[in-house]
Task: structure prediction
Amino acid sequence: MHAEAARIRLVVFDWAGTTVDHGCFAPVSPFIEAFRRHGVAITVGQARGPMGLEKKDHIRALMRRPDVAAVWRDAHSREPSEADVEAVFADFVPLQLERVADASRLVPGLLDCVERLRARGVRIGATTGYFAEAARRCADAAAAQGYRPDLALCPSDVPEGRPAPWMIFRIMQELRVYPPAAVLKAGDTVPDIEEGLNAGVWSAGVTATGSIVGLTEAEFAALPLSERGRRLHDAAGTLRDAGAHDVIESVAAIPALIDEIETRLARGEMPSRQPQHTH
Result:
């Protein structure tokens, strides 16, 4: 094992639902409205289903859903096509741009987490499903609140977005961090976990602030404890089933998680394709 694999040297965070936008709301209403403009009503649950993918891929995934495709056939008397993907995406883009900056409030505990990571020499990367201009606006809003990753990439920076590993690989290359066992990816969606697994890095799922739970900070805090526990359990199950090595409630738990992972590394453990540990 390379000596540097004995510690975590890079954490790659997702944006919405992980470091900003508690509950991951910024993309939801734009997807719903973009489809509505084409005569197709989709629900919040349907809109959230493919969350984490590059946004055009997200629209493709929605159109492949049998329930959404059926509504599309009713509205247009034909199957949805690639031209329809482009048309819906063209409507989605300005709607997303209107929403993203206003929905980029940092999640609680992020700045303290980043400060602690930097104190131990850990570099900070960011990947996303946002297209370039939306990613820039999100990053600018986060920077105004004090969060600036060392390198933030979007799908158009690489050959292919999530679940492909190229954004993580590019960040590793640019920040000169290797091997993959020295890297932790943290995100709130199944494509986040798959991205990390495909890159061969440690992959942690985030529940309380993420899209699967899908609640604002205030809504989440107002839940009865039993309901809060049920939602966290369900979200954790989804992320574990996707292969997450660890599941945490928020990025505030990252420093403690790194301590645990470094203990595993010292024992010779490597990130595998199978889930290993959960919280």
Q: What stands out?
A: Confidence is low (pLDDT under 50) at residues 275-279.
